């Protein structure tokens, strides 16, 4: 049953299993284990980024395609849902058609980019995606009558997803069962479902062929597989998944703007999460996204504590001052790439072999 | 030409600024083994790669089973029944042996009887079935490479130097396997430097030099004639045996 759910792709490492179970349990019971707005925001962000990073790994790790347009697809999904909710009102039907429209547009965009540029060398494809993504980001901020420009869009969500909505009056484990909580579980289960779908894809014959194409494109062709078709399909699937993750973000935040979806910074974050977690394995996305977002969110607090603790030692306390958190985040990345060149998941699986 | 499974006529191939094939005429009869000999750089590998569509011929035509396949792309050529075993043992190292094999069976699941026959030819394929192909030894990789090409019945198999860099014991296993394959009415076009193996397997032979075929005929014509060997290849092949 479990093997079927995971499409036969077991973690294959004791430590990794524990780590993944820990993440799963923490996310599933986040509202009860870590009460508070900030931790719930972080948990939802982790869920959404697991999907986003996994969809990027589908492209980078499995198909060996370097793309810089992933945030564009993420953005298309988010803006699709955002525009639907803001123009036709906060109903479920606008949520659904906005999400569907975003996913379809992202798929068509990916198909066009793929067919035009996947025949050329990898580096040109990367450049084309970079150019298209930058143009799209500028376009979104220029079309301010439609997208709100740099300010983005604020909109409502269906009543059941609003914090003011109460499912039951009593608290459970001291937590109010309100719309925000329902929305969190909506995000959680949707992310889990999308992740399992992707796991199914990469462990199917299609996923195997993708790996073969990445290993040796000419060999794959000589066996009779159309490489361009496989690469384009991977690009489209990955784009649609990214768009769905974008829609989840749009519904969760009730705000969509360039900074939350389209920025180059997010693109680089995604890259780092894939590399830190481990390329070519979707579990890497889970581990990478969780560690990265936790570090991004809580490193500052941790360093605040460290500064207080070391306040009597002059240089050290300056070094660990919270405003230097970016420096330490950088150090963490360098160390992780140095010690885990094949990513955390890759390292754990090797350790077992 | 109709009695030939594969025929190349006046084939020219350019790779970048280099004019590699300069009018290759080659006919591969149906059934049996045709060996393509020639010194390094004569254009043997380029000929195979042009047949496979990896390079596009700039002039000339390739006919396979009475169809012109000159302009087809590689996957279409493969699906017409030509398998290719390249010289660099290009197996998919990140996949398991099993995955490599099931990918090669492009027309559906692997036929169990066929698989039993292949693992009988190459026992390591069976014993390392679930191992990652990257962990195999050189000889085992070469066996996998050939096994992959024959897991589905093909009309023609192009094999590029299957014994290069392999130990004598493995060369013998490979020769035996190819001989058995020959019994199944599969046509083989073999590029080979090892003359002992080439002459024991080959029915017909073609010798290349400078992008052209300089000799074509029955293998017995070449093996029985040291003078011809010397003339064609600049040195007696006897010393290589």
Automatic annotation (TrEMBL), chain A:
Predominant subcellular localization, coarse grouping: membrane
Transmembrane regions: 15-34, 46-76, 96-116, 123-145, 182-202, 234-255, 270-295, 302-321, 327-348
Domain of life: Bacteria
Location(s), subcellular: Cell membrane
Annotated keywords: Cell membrane, Membrane, Transmembrane, Transmembrane helix
Record protein name field: Amino acid/amide ABC transporter membrane protein 2, HAAT family
InterPro entries: ABC_transp_permease (IPR001851), LivM-like (IPR043428)
Pfam families cross-referenced by the UniProt entry: BPD_transp_2
Topology term for the membrane: Multi-pass membrane protein
Automatic annotation (TrEMBL), chain B:
Gene3D superfamilies: P-loop containing nucleotide triphosphate hydrolases (3.40.50.300)
Database matches in Pfam families: ABC_tran
GO molecular-function term, one example from the UniProt record: ATP binding
Domain ABC transporter: 6-235
CDD domains tied to this protein: ABC_TM1139_LivF_branched (cd03224)
Keyword Transit peptide annotated: no
InterPro entries: AAA+_ATPase (IPR003593), ABC_transporter-like_ATP-bd (IPR003439), ABC_transporter-like_CS (IPR017871), BCAA_Transport_ATP-bd_LivF (IPR052156), P-loop_NTPase (IPR027417)
UniProt keyword Magnesium present: no
Entry keywords, A to Z: Amino-acid transport, ATP-binding, Nucleotide-binding, Transport
UniProt record similarity statement: Belongs to the ABC transporter superfamily.
Protein name per UniProt: Amino acid/amide ABC transporter ATP-binding protein 2, HAAT family
Species name: Roseibium denhamense
């Amino acid at each position: 049953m479990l093997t079927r759910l995971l499409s036969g792709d077991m973690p294959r490492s004791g430590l990794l299993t524990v780590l993944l179970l820990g993440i799963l349990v923490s996310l599933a019971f986040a509202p009860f284990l870590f009460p508070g707005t900030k931790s719930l925001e972080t948990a939802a962000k982790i869920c959404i980024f697991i999907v986003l990073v996994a969809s990027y790994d589908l492209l980078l790790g499995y198909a060996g395609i370097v793309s810089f347009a992933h945030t564009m697809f993420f953005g298309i999904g988010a803006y699709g849902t955002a525009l639907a909710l803001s123009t036709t009102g906060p109903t479920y039907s606008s949520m659904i058609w906005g999400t569907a429209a975003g996913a379809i547009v992202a798929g068509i965009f990916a198909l066009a980019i793929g067919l035009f540029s996947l025949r050329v060398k990898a580096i040109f494809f990367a450049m084309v995606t970079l150019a298209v993504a930058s143009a799209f980001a500028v376009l979104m901020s220029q079309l301010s009558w439609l997208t709100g420009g740099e300010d983005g869009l604020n909109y409502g969500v269906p009543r059941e997803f609003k914090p003011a909505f109460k499912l039951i009056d009593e608290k459970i484990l001291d937590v109010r069962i309100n719309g925000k909580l329902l929305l969190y579980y909506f995000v959680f289960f949707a992310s889990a479902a999308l992740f399992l779908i992707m796991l199914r894809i990469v462990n199917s014959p299609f996923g195997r062929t993708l790996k073969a194409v990445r290993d040796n494109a000419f060999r794959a062709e000589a066996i009779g597989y159309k490489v361009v078709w496989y690469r384009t399909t991977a690009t489209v699937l990955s784009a649609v998944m990214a768009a769905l993750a974008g829609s989840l973000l749009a519904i969760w935040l009730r705000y969509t703007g360039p900074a939350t979806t389209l920025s180059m910074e997010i693109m680089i974050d995604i890259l780092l999460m894939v590399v830190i977690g481990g390329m070519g394995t979707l579990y890497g996305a889970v581990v990478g996204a969780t560690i990265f977002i936790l570090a991004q969110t809580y490193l500052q607090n941790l360093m605040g504590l460290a500064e207080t603790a070391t306040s009597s030692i002059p240089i050290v306390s300056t070094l660990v001052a919270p405003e230097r958190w970016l420096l330490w985040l950088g150090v963490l990345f360098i160390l992780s790439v140095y010690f885990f060149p094949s990513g955390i998941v890759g390292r754990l699986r090797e350790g077992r072999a | 030409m109709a009695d030939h499974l594969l025929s190349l006529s006046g084939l020219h191939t350019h790779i970048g600024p280099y004019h590699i094939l300069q009018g290759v005429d080659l006919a591969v009869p149906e059934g049996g083994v045709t060996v393509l000999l020639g010194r390094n750089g004569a254009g043997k590998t380029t000929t195979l790669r042009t047949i496979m569509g990896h390079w596009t011929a700039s002039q000339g035509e390739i006919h396979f089973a009475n169809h012109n396949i000159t302009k087809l792309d590689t996957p279409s050529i493969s699906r017409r029944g030509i398998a290719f075993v390249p010289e660099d043992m290009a197996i998919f190292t990140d996949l398991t042996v099993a995955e490599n094999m099931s990918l090669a069976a492009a027309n559906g699941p692997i036929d169990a009887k066929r698989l039993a026959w292949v693992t009988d030819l190459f026992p390591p394929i069976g014993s390392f079935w679930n191992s990652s192909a990257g962990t195999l030894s050189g000889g085992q990789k070469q066996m996998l490479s050939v096994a992959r090409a024959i897991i589905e019945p093909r009309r023609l198999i192009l094999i590029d130097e299957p014994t290069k860099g392999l130990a004598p014991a493995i060369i013998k296993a490979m020769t035996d396997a190819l001989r058995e394959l020959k019994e199944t009415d599969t046509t083989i076009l073999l590029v080979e430097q090892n003359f002992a193996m080439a002459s024991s397997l080959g029915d017909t032979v073609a010798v290349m030099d400078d992008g052209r075929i300089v000799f074509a005929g029955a293998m017995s014509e070449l093996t029985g004639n040291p003078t011809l060997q010397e003339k064609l290849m600049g040195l007696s092949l006897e010393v290589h045996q």
